[in-house]
Protein backbone atom coordinates (compact mmCIF):
# COMPACT_ATOMS: atom_id res chain seq x y z
CA UNK A 1 0.00 0.00 0.00
CA UNK A 2 2.69 2.48 1.09
CA UNK A 3 4.84 1.29 -1.82
CA UNK A 4 2.05 2.20 -4.24
CA UNK A 5 1.67 5.62 -2.55
CA UNK A 6 5.37 6.29 -3.05
CA UNK A 7 5.30 5.06 -6.64
CA UNK A 8 2.42 7.45 -7.42
CA UNK A 9 4.25 10.38 -5.85
CA UNK A 10 7.37 9.53 -7.84
CA UNK A 11 5.36 9.61 -11.07
CA UNK A 12 4.27 13.14 -10.12
CA UNK A 13 7.87 14.11 -9.51
CA UNK A 14 7.15 14.82 -5.83
CA UNK A 15 9.33 12.13 -4.39
CA UNK A 16 12.49 10.47 -5.55
CA UNK A 17 14.44 7.71 -3.92
CA UNK A 18 17.06 9.23 -1.61
CA UNK A 19 20.41 9.69 -3.40
CA UNK A 20 19.35 8.23 -6.71
CA UNK A 21 21.94 8.40 -9.49
CA UNK A 22 20.05 11.54 -10.62
CA UNK A 23 20.70 13.22 -7.28
CA UNK A 24 24.34 12.13 -7.24
CA UNK A 25 24.69 13.47 -10.79
CA UNK A 26 23.28 16.87 -9.74
CA UNK A 27 25.64 16.92 -6.76
CA UNK A 28 28.70 16.23 -8.86
CA UNK A 29 27.69 18.35 -11.89
CA UNK A 30 27.59 21.56 -9.88
CA UNK A 31 24.10 22.24 -11.33
CA UNK A 32 22.22 25.07 -9.69
CA UNK A 33 20.33 23.86 -6.63
CA UNK A 34 17.66 25.52 -4.57
CA UNK A 35 17.00 26.81 -1.09
CA UNK A 36 13.34 26.63 -0.11
CA UNK A 37 11.79 28.08 3.06
CA UNK A 38 8.44 27.11 4.57
CA UNK A 39 6.87 29.82 6.74
CA UNK A 40 4.28 28.21 9.02
CA UNK A 41 6.27 24.98 8.91
CA UNK A 42 5.06 23.56 12.23
CA UNK A 43 1.38 23.64 11.28
CA UNK A 44 -1.08 21.17 9.85
CA UNK A 45 0.01 21.93 6.29
CA UNK A 46 3.56 23.00 7.12
CA UNK A 47 4.73 19.67 8.54
CA UNK A 48 3.65 17.29 5.75
CA UNK A 49 4.60 19.90 3.14
CA UNK A 50 8.07 20.10 4.66
CA UNK A 51 8.32 16.31 4.55
CA UNK A 52 7.44 16.25 0.84
CA UNK A 53 9.92 19.05 0.12
CA UNK A 54 12.62 17.22 2.09
CA UNK A 55 12.11 14.31 -0.29
CA UNK A 56 12.36 16.48 -3.41
CA UNK A 57 15.89 16.20 -4.82
CA UNK A 58 15.70 19.68 -6.37
CA UNK A 59 15.71 21.13 -2.84
CA UNK A 60 19.18 21.30 -1.33
CA UNK A 61 18.49 23.56 1.64
CA UNK A 62 15.17 23.53 3.45
CA UNK A 63 14.57 26.20 6.08
CA UNK A 64 11.58 25.73 8.38
CA UNK A 65 10.22 28.79 10.17
CA UNK A 66 7.24 29.05 12.51
CA UNK A 67 6.36 31.04 15.61
CA UNK A 68 5.67 27.70 17.36
CA UNK A 69 8.53 26.52 19.63
CA UNK A 70 8.27 22.98 18.24
CA UNK A 71 9.84 24.16 14.93
CA UNK A 72 13.48 23.17 15.65
CA UNK A 73 12.08 19.77 16.66
CA UNK A 74 10.27 19.37 13.35
CA UNK A 75 13.55 20.20 11.59
CA UNK A 76 15.48 17.76 13.79
CA UNK A 77 12.95 15.06 12.98
CA UNK A 78 13.22 15.61 9.20
CA UNK A 79 17.01 15.96 9.37
CA UNK A 80 17.30 12.20 10.02
CA UNK A 81 16.10 11.41 6.48
CA UNK A 82 18.87 10.42 4.08
CA UNK A 83 18.06 12.87 1.26
CA UNK A 84 20.23 15.51 -0.37
CA UNK A 85 18.88 18.57 1.45
CA UNK A 86 20.04 20.13 4.68
CA UNK A 87 17.12 21.11 6.88
CA UNK A 88 17.24 23.87 9.48
CA UNK A 89 14.62 24.97 12.03
CA UNK A 90 14.04 28.62 12.97
CA UNK A 91 11.84 30.27 15.59
CA UNK A 92 12.04 33.35 17.79
CA UNK A 93 13.37 36.88 17.33
CA UNK A 94 15.34 37.46 14.15
CA UNK A 95 14.86 33.85 13.08
CA UNK A 96 12.68 34.63 10.05
CA UNK A 97 15.51 36.65 8.47
CA UNK A 98 17.90 33.69 8.96
CA UNK A 99 15.41 31.27 7.45
CA UNK A 100 14.77 33.45 4.39
CA UNK A 101 18.37 34.42 3.65
CA UNK A 102 19.34 33.42 0.07
CA UNK A 103 16.06 31.61 -0.55
CA UNK A 104 14.96 30.86 -4.09
CA UNK A 105 11.43 29.85 -3.16
CA UNK A 106 9.35 30.73 -0.08
CA UNK A 107 6.16 28.76 0.58
CA UNK A 108 3.79 30.41 3.05
CA UNK A 109 1.11 28.37 4.85
CA UNK A 110 1.29 30.55 8.01
CA UNK A 111 -1.95 31.59 9.65
CA UNK A 112 -5.18 30.29 11.10
CA UNK A 113 -7.47 27.79 9.37
CA UNK A 114 -11.29 27.79 9.25
CA UNK A 115 -13.74 26.18 11.61
CA UNK A 116 -17.24 25.02 10.54
CA UNK A 117 -19.52 27.95 9.73
CA UNK A 118 -16.68 30.28 8.75
CA UNK A 119 -15.81 31.55 5.28
CA UNK A 120 -12.22 32.03 4.17
CA UNK A 121 -12.83 35.78 4.33
CA UNK A 122 -13.48 35.39 8.09
CA UNK A 123 -9.73 34.61 8.40
CA UNK A 124 -8.78 37.98 6.91
CA UNK A 125 -8.41 39.89 10.20
CA UNK A 126 -5.73 37.53 11.54
CA UNK A 127 -4.02 36.25 8.38
CA UNK A 128 -3.71 39.57 6.52
CA UNK A 129 -1.11 40.88 8.98
CA UNK A 130 0.72 37.54 9.15
CA UNK A 131 1.16 37.50 5.37
CA UNK A 132 2.03 41.21 5.20
CA UNK A 133 4.75 40.97 7.86
CA UNK A 134 6.17 37.75 6.37
CA UNK A 135 6.37 39.25 2.89
CA UNK A 136 7.92 42.48 4.22
CA UNK A 137 10.77 40.38 5.64
CA UNK A 138 11.02 38.43 2.36
CA UNK A 139 11.54 41.75 0.53
CA UNK A 140 14.57 42.37 2.75
CA UNK A 141 16.05 38.88 3.06
CA UNK A 142 15.32 37.26 -0.32
CA UNK A 143 14.06 39.98 -2.69
CA UNK A 144 14.55 37.81 -5.79
CA UNK A 145 12.73 34.73 -4.51
CA UNK A 146 9.47 33.26 -5.79
CA UNK A 147 6.67 33.57 -3.20
CA UNK A 148 3.99 30.88 -3.02
CA UNK A 149 1.07 31.98 -0.85
CA UNK A 150 -1.15 29.30 0.68
CA UNK A 151 -2.56 31.32 3.63
CA UNK A 152 -6.24 32.18 3.25
CA UNK A 153 -8.09 34.11 2.05
CA UNK A 154 -5.84 33.69 -1.00
CA UNK A 155 -8.08 36.07 -3.00
CA UNK A 156 -6.94 38.83 -0.62
CA UNK A 157 -3.58 37.69 0.78
CA UNK A 158 -1.91 37.67 -2.65
CA UNK A 159 -2.96 41.28 -3.42
CA UNK A 160 -1.76 42.22 0.09
CA UNK A 161 1.64 40.69 -0.67
CA UNK A 162 1.84 42.60 -3.96
CA UNK A 163 1.23 45.96 -2.24
CA UNK A 164 3.83 45.25 0.45
CA UNK A 165 6.39 44.26 -2.19
CA UNK A 166 5.58 47.38 -4.24
CA UNK A 167 6.16 49.54 -1.16
CA UNK A 168 9.48 47.75 -0.64
CA UNK A 169 10.33 48.31 -4.34
CA UNK A 170 10.95 44.62 -4.93
CA UNK A 171 7.66 43.60 -6.57
CA UNK A 172 8.02 41.23 -9.50
CA UNK A 173 4.55 40.07 -10.58
CA UNK A 174 6.11 37.03 -12.29
CA UNK A 175 7.23 35.63 -8.93
CA UNK A 176 4.12 36.00 -6.76
CA UNK A 177 1.63 33.13 -6.84
CA UNK A 178 -1.50 32.23 -4.91
CA UNK A 179 -1.51 28.44 -4.66
CA UNK A 180 -4.80 27.11 -6.05
CA UNK A 181 -3.48 23.64 -6.89
CA UNK A 182 -5.78 21.97 -4.38
CA UNK A 183 -8.74 23.07 -6.51
CA UNK A 184 -7.08 21.35 -9.49
CA UNK A 185 -6.42 18.23 -7.38
CA UNK A 186 -10.05 18.07 -6.27
CA UNK A 187 -11.31 18.58 -9.82
CA UNK A 188 -9.06 15.80 -11.14
CA UNK A 189 -10.14 13.46 -8.32
CA UNK A 190 -13.90 14.06 -8.35
CA UNK A 191 -14.22 14.11 -12.14
CA UNK A 192 -11.92 11.10 -12.52
CA UNK A 193 -14.05 9.17 -10.02
CA UNK A 194 -17.24 10.22 -11.79
CA UNK A 195 -15.93 9.26 -15.25
CA UNK A 196 -14.36 6.09 -13.88
CA UNK A 197 -11.01 7.20 -15.31
CA UNK A 198 -7.49 7.13 -13.93
CA UNK A 199 -7.48 10.40 -11.98
CA UNK A 200 -3.86 11.07 -12.94
CA UNK A 201 -4.90 11.31 -16.58
CA UNK A 202 -7.76 13.75 -15.95
CA UNK A 203 -7.10 17.42 -16.74
CA UNK A 204 -9.63 20.04 -15.66
CA UNK A 205 -8.99 23.79 -15.84
CA UNK A 206 -10.07 25.61 -12.68
CA UNK A 207 -10.15 29.39 -13.01
CA UNK A 208 -11.11 32.46 -10.97
CA UNK A 209 -10.06 32.53 -7.36
CA UNK A 210 -9.85 30.33 -4.28
CA UNK A 211 -13.08 30.74 -2.31
CA UNK A 212 -16.50 29.15 -2.88
CA UNK A 213 -18.15 30.44 -6.04
CA UNK A 214 -14.96 32.13 -7.23
CA UNK A 215 -13.56 28.61 -7.85
CA UNK A 216 -14.80 27.72 -11.34
CA UNK A 217 -13.94 24.32 -12.83
CA UNK A 218 -14.41 24.16 -16.61
CA UNK A 219 -16.00 20.77 -17.17
CA UNK A 220 -16.60 21.64 -20.83
CA UNK A 221 -12.82 21.37 -21.34
CA UNK A 222 -12.59 17.77 -20.12
CA UNK A 223 -14.01 16.09 -23.22
CA UNK A 224 -16.68 14.42 -21.06
CA UNK A 225 -20.43 14.60 -21.69
CA UNK A 226 -22.23 15.52 -18.47
CA UNK A 227 -25.97 15.72 -17.76
CA UNK A 228 -26.88 19.12 -16.31
CA UNK A 229 -27.60 17.63 -12.86
CA UNK A 230 -24.14 16.00 -12.81
CA UNK A 231 -22.49 19.26 -13.93
CA UNK A 232 -24.27 21.08 -11.09
CA UNK A 233 -23.22 18.50 -8.50
CA UNK A 234 -19.57 18.19 -9.62
CA UNK A 235 -19.10 21.95 -9.97
CA UNK A 236 -20.60 22.54 -6.54
CA UNK A 237 -18.42 19.84 -4.94
CA UNK A 238 -15.23 21.33 -6.43
CA UNK A 239 -16.23 24.88 -5.40
CA UNK A 240 -16.99 23.79 -1.85
CA UNK A 241 -14.47 20.95 -1.42
CA UNK A 242 -12.76 22.94 1.33
CA UNK A 243 -15.99 23.06 3.34
CA UNK A 244 -16.36 19.29 3.01
CA UNK A 245 -13.05 18.83 4.86
CA UNK A 246 -13.72 21.62 7.39
CA UNK A 247 -17.03 19.97 8.33
CA UNK A 248 -15.54 16.47 8.50
CA UNK A 249 -12.77 17.69 10.82
CA UNK A 250 -15.43 19.07 13.20
CA UNK A 251 -13.57 22.14 14.39
CA UNK A 252 -10.11 20.56 14.07
CA UNK A 253 -9.06 22.70 11.09
CA UNK A 254 -9.22 22.47 7.31
CA UNK A 255 -7.46 20.49 4.58
CA UNK A 256 -3.84 19.85 5.52
CA UNK A 257 -2.59 16.60 3.94
CA UNK A 258 -4.18 17.20 0.54
CA UNK A 259 -2.94 20.80 0.67
CA UNK A 260 0.57 19.61 1.49
CA UNK A 261 0.46 17.37 -1.59
CA UNK A 262 -0.95 20.18 -3.76
CA UNK A 263 1.61 22.67 -2.41
CA UNK A 264 4.49 20.28 -3.00
CA UNK A 265 3.24 19.62 -6.54
CA UNK A 266 3.11 23.34 -7.32
CA UNK A 267 6.51 23.95 -5.71
CA UNK A 268 7.96 21.17 -7.88
CA UNK A 269 6.60 22.94 -10.99
CA UNK A 270 8.18 26.25 -9.98
CA UNK A 271 11.51 24.56 -9.16
CA UNK A 272 11.47 22.63 -12.43
CA UNK A 273 10.90 25.87 -14.37
CA UNK A 274 13.69 27.64 -12.48
CA UNK A 275 16.14 24.79 -12.58
CA UNK A 276 15.60 23.18 -15.97
CA UNK A 277 14.78 26.37 -17.86
CA UNK A 278 11.91 24.51 -19.56
CA UNK A 279 8.44 25.98 -19.86
CA UNK A 280 6.10 24.35 -17.35
CA UNK A 281 2.32 24.78 -17.46
CA UNK A 282 0.44 25.26 -14.21
CA UNK A 283 -2.59 27.00 -12.73
CA UNK A 284 -2.09 29.78 -10.18
CA UNK A 285 -3.68 32.97 -8.83
CA UNK A 286 -1.45 35.68 -10.25
CA UNK A 287 -1.53 39.31 -11.33
CA UNK A 288 -3.64 39.25 -14.44
CA UNK A 289 -4.21 41.56 -17.38
CA UNK A 290 -7.03 39.40 -18.77
CA UNK A 291 -9.52 42.01 -17.58
CA UNK A 292 -11.61 39.87 -15.20
CA UNK A 293 -9.97 40.94 -11.91
CA UNK A 294 -6.53 42.40 -11.05
CA UNK A 295 -5.55 38.96 -9.69
CA UNK A 296 -7.04 35.87 -11.27
CA UNK A 297 -6.29 32.16 -11.42
CA UNK A 298 -5.82 30.67 -14.87
CA UNK A 299 -3.29 28.62 -16.79
CA UNK A 300 0.21 30.09 -16.61
CA UNK A 301 3.41 29.16 -18.42
CA UNK A 302 6.38 29.25 -16.05
CA UNK A 303 10.02 29.58 -16.95
CA UNK A 304 13.25 30.55 -15.16
CA UNK A 305 11.89 34.02 -14.35
CA UNK A 306 8.51 32.82 -13.08
CA UNK A 307 5.26 33.56 -14.92
CA UNK A 308 6.16 33.93 -18.58
CA UNK A 309 2.60 34.00 -19.88
CA UNK A 310 -0.90 34.16 -18.42
CA UNK A 311 -3.39 32.29 -20.61
CA UNK A 312 -7.00 33.26 -21.14
CA UNK A 313 -9.74 30.88 -20.04
CA UNK A 314 -10.83 29.78 -23.53
CA UNK A 315 -14.37 28.99 -24.63
CA UNK A 316 -17.05 28.62 -21.96
CA UNK A 317 -20.43 26.93 -22.33
CA UNK A 318 -23.60 28.76 -21.21
CA UNK A 319 -23.54 27.19 -17.75
CA UNK A 320 -19.92 28.27 -17.18
CA UNK A 321 -20.53 31.75 -18.66
CA UNK A 322 -23.29 32.36 -16.10
CA UNK A 323 -21.14 31.22 -13.17
CA UNK A 324 -18.21 33.22 -14.50
CA UNK A 325 -20.24 36.45 -14.55
CA UNK A 326 -21.66 35.71 -11.08
CA UNK A 327 -18.18 35.17 -9.63
CA UNK A 328 -16.58 38.41 -10.86
CA UNK A 329 -18.05 40.93 -8.36
CA UNK A 330 -17.17 38.71 -5.36
CA UNK A 331 -13.65 38.07 -6.60
CA UNK A 332 -13.01 41.73 -7.39
CA UNK A 333 -14.30 42.79 -3.96
CA UNK A 334 -11.95 40.34 -2.22
CA UNK A 335 -8.98 41.44 -4.34
CA UNK A 336 -9.75 45.13 -3.69
CA UNK A 337 -10.03 44.43 0.05
CA UNK A 338 -6.53 42.94 -0.05
CA UNK A 339 -5.10 45.83 -2.07
CA UNK A 340 -6.58 48.39 0.36
CA UNK A 341 -5.19 46.52 3.37
CA UNK A 342 -1.77 46.14 1.75
CA UNK A 343 -1.54 49.85 0.95
CA UNK A 344 -2.61 50.82 4.49
CA UNK A 345 -0.17 48.33 6.02
CA UNK A 346 2.65 49.74 3.90
CA UNK A 347 1.79 53.33 4.92
CA UNK A 348 1.53 52.56 8.62
CA UNK A 349 4.08 49.81 9.22
CA UNK A 350 6.85 49.98 6.64
N1 LIG B 1 -4.53 27.75 -0.53
C1 LIG B 1 -5.20 26.68 -0.19
O1 LIG B 1 -5.69 25.93 -1.05
C2 LIG B 1 -5.36 26.30 1.25
C3 LIG B 1 -5.06 27.20 2.23
N2 LIG B 1 -5.16 26.85 3.55
C4 LIG B 1 -4.81 27.87 4.54
O2 LIG B 1 -3.49 27.62 5.03
C5 LIG B 1 -3.35 28.23 6.32
C6 LIG B 1 -2.69 27.26 7.30
O3 LIG B 1 -3.54 26.16 7.54
P1 LIG B 1 -3.09 25.00 8.58
O4 LIG B 1 -1.70 24.60 8.33
O5 LIG B 1 -4.15 23.99 8.57
O6 LIG B 1 -3.14 25.81 9.95
P2 LIG B 1 -2.36 25.48 11.32
O7 LIG B 1 -2.96 26.33 12.38
O8 LIG B 1 -2.33 24.01 11.52
O9 LIG B 1 -0.87 25.95 11.01
C7 LIG B 1 -0.54 27.28 10.79
C8 LIG B 1 0.82 27.52 11.33
O10 LIG B 1 1.16 28.89 11.10
C9 LIG B 1 1.93 29.31 12.22
N3 LIG B 1 1.96 30.75 12.29
C10 LIG B 1 1.04 31.63 12.76
N4 LIG B 1 1.48 32.88 12.66
C11 LIG B 1 2.72 32.82 12.10
C12 LIG B 1 3.67 33.77 11.72
N5 LIG B 1 3.49 35.09 11.92
N6 LIG B 1 4.83 33.35 11.17
C13 LIG B 1 5.05 32.03 10.98
N7 LIG B 1 4.17 31.08 11.31
C14 LIG B 1 3.02 31.46 11.85
C15 LIG B 1 1.27 28.64 13.41
O11 LIG B 1 2.14 28.61 14.53
C16 LIG B 1 0.95 27.28 12.85
O12 LIG B 1 2.01 26.36 13.10
C17 LIG B 1 -4.75 28.66 6.73
O13 LIG B 1 -4.90 30.05 6.50
C18 LIG B 1 -5.64 27.88 5.79
O14 LIG B 1 -6.89 28.50 5.59
C19 LIG B 1 -5.57 25.60 3.92
C20 LIG B 1 -5.87 24.66 2.97
C21 LIG B 1 -5.85 24.94 1.57
O1 LIG C 1 -11.40 25.39 3.08
C1 LIG C 1 -10.47 25.96 3.68
O2 LIG C 1 -10.62 26.82 4.55
C2 LIG C 1 -9.07 25.58 3.31
C3 LIG C 1 -8.93 25.68 1.86
O3 LIG C 1 -8.67 26.72 1.31
C4 LIG C 1 -9.26 24.50 1.06
O4 LIG C 1 -9.35 23.38 1.59
O5 LIG C 1 -9.46 24.65 -0.15
UniProtKB/TrEMBL annotation:
The keyword Oxidoreductase applies. GO terms for molecular function: L-malate dehydrogenase (NAD+) activity. Homodimer. Belongs to the LDH/MDH superfamily. MDH type 1 family. GO terms for biological process: carboxylic acid metabolic process; tricarboxylic acid cycle. NAD(+) binds at residues 40-46, 66, 127, 150-152, 259. Its EC number is 1.1.1.37. Substrate binds at residues 114, 120, 152, 186. GO terms for cellular component: cytoplasm. This is malate dehydrogenase. It catalyses: (S)-malate + NAD(+) = oxaloacetate + NADH + H(+). It comes from Chromera velia CCMP2878. It is an enzyme of class 1 (oxidoreductase). The active site is at residue 210. Residues 35-177 form the Lactate/malate dehydrogenase N-terminal domain. Pfam families: Ldh_1_C (PF02866), Ldh_1_N (PF00056). Residues 180-341 form the Lactate/malate dehydrogenase C-terminal domain. Keywords: NAD, Oxidoreductase, Tricarboxylic acid cycle.
Amino acid sequence: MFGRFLATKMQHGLLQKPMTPFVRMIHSSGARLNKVAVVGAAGGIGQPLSLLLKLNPRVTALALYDVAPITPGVAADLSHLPTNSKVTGHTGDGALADALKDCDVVVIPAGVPRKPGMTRDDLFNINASIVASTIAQCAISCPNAHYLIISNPVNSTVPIASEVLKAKKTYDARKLYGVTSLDLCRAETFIGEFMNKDQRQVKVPVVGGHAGKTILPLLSHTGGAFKQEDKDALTHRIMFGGDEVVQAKQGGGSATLSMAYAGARFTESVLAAIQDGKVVEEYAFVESKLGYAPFFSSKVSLDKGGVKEVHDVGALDDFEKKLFEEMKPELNAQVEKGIAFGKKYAEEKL
